[in-house]
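Lab channel / #folding
Pinned by the channel admin:
"Please post every new chain as: sequence first, then the structure tokens as a reply. Keep commentary short and put observations after the output so the thread stays searchable."

First post following the new format, from NK:
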Amino acid sequence: MGLNDTPGSERKHIAFFGCRNAGKSSLLNAVTGQKFAIVSNVPGTTTDPVYKSMELLPAGPVVVIDTPGLDDVGELGELRIEKAKGVLRKTDLAILVVDSAKGFAPADESILALIEERKIPVIKVYNKSDISKEEVSAETKARKVGSSLTSDTANSVSLSVSAVTGDGIFELKETIAKLLNESSNDKVLVGDLIAPNDLVILVVPIDKAAPKGRLILPQQQTIRDLLDHGAIPLVCRDSELADVIARYGSDAKLVITDSQAFKKVSAIVPEEIPLTSFSILFARYKGELDYQLDGIKAVETLKDGDYVLIAEGCTHHRQCGDIGTEKIPAMLRKKANVQIDFTQGTEYPDDLEKYKVIIHCGGCMLNEKEMKARIEAAKKHNVAITNYGMTIAYLTGVLERSMKPLQS
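Reply from TO:
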């Protein structure tokens, strides 16, 4: 992936929800201007959430998600509905598609309640406005479908469209851009910690787990953020760090390392040079830094038989020496004989109560919405959650030092 590509985790996620044959897929195709989703009169054509990264003007780079029908039936249908609801964890903007002739169904009301509970901006789109007015239900009329755009609340808008004729599609796209813009924030990864022309040393170990011929996403994004803020990134391996510090250390304003090299790097970098890790930066960028730092208390008090969940946001192939499945477990088991479960990618258990602590990766492959949903799930079950970088920093004795640059 090139540095100019916007990663999926940095794109706003727009999810289309609705009952079978409400016209979700047709509407999605009309909005994107592509034959993105399969359109059919057969109920239940969309069986799993379908994701596509794209440029949606005027919103910009987004991920659009087509979901299964919320009124699906049978045992398999229930599984599809749960898959659709699971998309809410990563949704920045929900589009609830309602058949104008039928009006709100119980399934629509159910998903809308979940959307509102999570405080997700929502556009209620009454599709098929091209049908004869005699067919429009009294309930739908009561919801003012006849007007092209109705502001329900600051976080909710109603809009009447036709995916067939294109009526209202322009207004829908403009509304999508407006709501996404209102929900955006000004968070930066590292730019607020440095000043223009600051020299920042990035330590990137090249081991068996390093992808051949490229940098991993956290490294790419950190370099880009430093460049965007006028800093000067200097990238080296841990094996060359001592020479780099000898030549440039007096000018360095910050050192950022891969967490697995914390012990070696902290021994080389003088105390007066601030030091942190890519993973800890992402914990601040995507999650709740203080809450995850507090989770270290659970790591400190681990005892034999405690359950630990190690959660990885991406689905990379596990290799010998993998940080999540080998290095962190080995370090933990020097403290106590703990029981460790692993998840990766979109897998994340609903029942977290048995765990003493969740140790999560930085979440570079998850959008902010999903990372925070995982933290909220831990809070709900009263389970501590912390981060790869913080855990390794604590276990190698450099936690206080690694957090200091982010707390000044």
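NK: Residues 132-148 have pLDDT under 50 and may be disordered.
TO: also worth noting, The chain has 15 helices and 15 strands.
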